[in-house]
Write a structure and sequence with these properties.
With 126 residues, this protein is mostly helical. The protein has 5 helices and no strands.
């Protein structure tokens, strides 16, 4: 595989939706990706639009909160879902769904951290 000249070594956690740090328009691609991780009402706040590093910080907080929610849902599912009258097969499927979501969110959190570090000039490409 031939790497483009603008490529730098980036973490395996680097999101594919974000261009390589240092490449043309990479910060814009980072901001676009980060905006997708936060509630829509935040995406139009001027401070978050003008300062991608602030947007990255907010995305980190948002993803960490989502991890806490998914873990709580996972930890309480076996005790609380039967009280809702759900069949055992639905409960088991839901538990698997929550477990997969925790793993996916942890990956996203690592990706947000990598982008945040690059935006702050502590990561690759700066």
């Amino acid at each position: 595989m031939i790497m483009p000249l603008t490529s730098t070594r980036i973490s395996h956690d680097w999101p594919c939706q974000v261009k390589t740090p240092g490449s043309y328009d990479w910060e814009r691609s980072a901001a676009k990706w980060l905006r997708e991780l936060i509630p829509a009402r935040y995406a139009s706040y001027p401070a978050l639009i003008r300062h991608p590093v602030l947007l990255a910080r907010h995305a980190q907080l948002q993803v960490q909160q989502e991890i806490r929610v998914a873990r709580t849902a996972l930890q309480t599912a076996r005790a609380e879902l039967p009280m809702l009258g759900l069949p055992e097969s639905v409960i088991e499927h839901t538990i698997k769904l929550y477990a997969a979501e925790v793993l996916q969110l942890q990956h996203i959190a690592r990706s947000v951290r990598a982008v945040s570090e690059a935006l702050a000039g502590r990561g690759t490409g700066r």
